[in-house]
Amino acid sequence: MCNDLDVVRPTQTVRKILIAGHVGAGKTTVLQTLFGDQALTTDALHSEAVSDSKTTTTVAMDYGVIDCPVSNDRLHIYAIPGQERFQFMWEILSRNASGILLLMDARIPKPLQAIHLYLDRILPYLHQPSGVVALNKLSGAEREELRLPPYLRHGDLRLRLTTTDVRDREEVLTLLRLLVGEIGQRNAMHDEFSLGGIQRGVPQSPSR
Ligand SMILES: Nc1nc2c(ncn2[C@@H]2O[C@H](COP(=O)(O)OP(=O)(O)OP(=O)(O)O)[C@@H](O)[C@H]2O)c(=O)[nH]1
Ligand SMILES: [Mg+2]
To answer: Shortest CA distance to 72 belongs to which of 156, 189, 204, 183?
Structure first.
């Protein structure tokens, strides 16, 4: 899936994807699931105890590149740190991201409220991104019982809503496919509006 990365195919679209979420949400796990030992991570020992016997935390970023053969996209995936004190990295890593994958531990109290609060903090760094919100850390039975609407509205944004277990490679690939689909839909809508503008006689800058 991530072979032959030296060459960008002529028709390939390169996209930047941001993985976000609280401490321990599973952001680094996404990269480890996709790239194994080759995942580029910056984990350091935690100064405080965290759930899931997690002893390390990301202090700068995680990074990896993967080709999505179905959609002919090359995804540059960046995971941001969850700890507040490394929030300065959010702005740096968010630049030019076309999509966000937000992971949320579904076991915390009021996870949907937590999603909205998190989005309020991260969205100012992003320019109209497409997004997927994935609730994780649920048992198989809990996932089956959970009836989620397909989309979550946050202001003007519509984010694809789903459950996941990012320790499973197929599940991570499904999330990436969903996100690429959302980006494609948003771009198609944008083109449609632009074309509408031309057809309605919106002044164009003179061609040279
Ligand atoms: N039970 C369960 N555990 C999960 C699931 N997804 C991730 N985990 C575990 O939760 C932990 C997440 O750790 P990380 O991936 O390092 O979390 P992070 O979001 O990168 O955290 P910071 O870098 O500290 O912000 C790991 O121990 C994973 O194995 C899940 O769906 N179910
Ligand atoms: Mg991490």
So the answer is: 183
Identify which of 114, 190, 189 has the alpha carbon closest to the alpha carbon of residue 152. 114
What pLDDT digit, counting tens, does each position of 13-56 carry? 999 999 999 999 999 999 999 999 999 999 999 876 565 668 89
Would you state the structure tokens that stand for residue 114, as one six-digit string? Answer: 């937590």
Query: With a 6 A CB cut-off, is 58 part of the ligand 1 pocket?
Result: yes
Long-range contact set of residues 138-147: C-beta below 8 Å, sequence gap at least 24: 138/106, 138/107, 138/163, 138/165, 142/106, 146/106
123 CA distance to ligand 2 middle (Å): 19
27 CA from centroid of ligand 1 (Å): 7
* In contact, 17 and 176? CB cutoff 8 Å: yes
pLDDT digits (tens, 9 = 90+) for 68-77: 867 889 999 9
Are the C-beta atoms of 60 and 28 separated by less than 8 Å?
A: no
- The Cα 50–Cα 48 span in angstroms is 6
Ligand 1 atom closest to the Cα of residue 103 is: 19
Mutate to test the pocket of ligand 1, among 18, 23, 28 (most ligand atoms within 8 A of CB): 28
State the Rg of the chain over Cα: 18
Q: Which atom of ligand 1 is nearest to the CA of 50?
A: 24
User: What domains lie within the chain, and their CATH numbers?
Assistant: 13-199 (3.40.50.300)
